[in-house]
Amino acid sequence: MRQIVLDTETTGLEPEQGHRIIEIGCVEMVERRLTGNNFHVYLQPDREIDAGAVEVHGITNAFLADKPRFADVVEDLMAYLRGAELVIHNAPFDMGFLNSELRRLNNWQPLQDYCGVIDTLVMARDLHPGQRNSLDALCGRYDVDNTRREKHGALLDAEILADVYLAMTGGQTAMFAEAEATTEGEGGEGGIRRLPEDRPPLAVVRASAAELAAHEARLDALDKAGGGSVWRRPAGT
What we know:
The protein is α/β, with parallel strands linked by helices and 237 residues long. The chain has a single domain (2-174), classed as Ribonuclease H-like superfamily/Ribonuclease H (Nucleotidyltransferase, domain 5, 2-Layer Sandwich), CATH 3.30.420.10. The chain has helices at residues 51-57, 61-64, 70-81, 91-104, 120-127, 135-141, 154-168, 172-185, 209-225, and strands at 2-10, 21-30, 33-34, 39-42, 85-88, 116-119. Strands 1, 2, 3, 4, 5 and 6 form a 6-stranded mixed sheet that branches.
């Protein structure tokens, strides 16, 4: 499964008021592994950035003066996003801006026609009702390092959100990284540590009824957040 963790920075809060995207940051994951095949671009919005927005992200019109426009990058962006499952924190905000940009170009459909979408804010509210579920709050809750986040930035926030999403849904990347480091340090070949043939049989520990019920509850929460959990998808999809 290919997922793209996506974030944007904008000139203001409302695309209906003519505000535009000025930065897009995307982080690719395949089968929950970060690939390094990221997408990042700053954009010339052809309008002034609200002072309040500059306070949040620190991006100025002077910095963007020589940057491409959305129309210049849309083909590359859509080729990168097409067919992926997008992971976005507060998806209506970013999707609203992206769809506004696509409408300006006439020959594009809404982004959700090309991609699935998971909203991690909805997911977090289901998992942690009544608590703060901002990206910074989730970093604290899941022990994700956000010390570099002095200002908002689309690529940095997408990188942080990728770590938060993996932690919220199981944290497998940390497990894989630790396993690879262990096998490499112990003479494993190709990331594989071979067990001796005369080892005793491995114990099979089956989930209890309570654990199975908790697992089903987590799958229900993932389904409600959007996109559906991979465990409930038909084989081969």
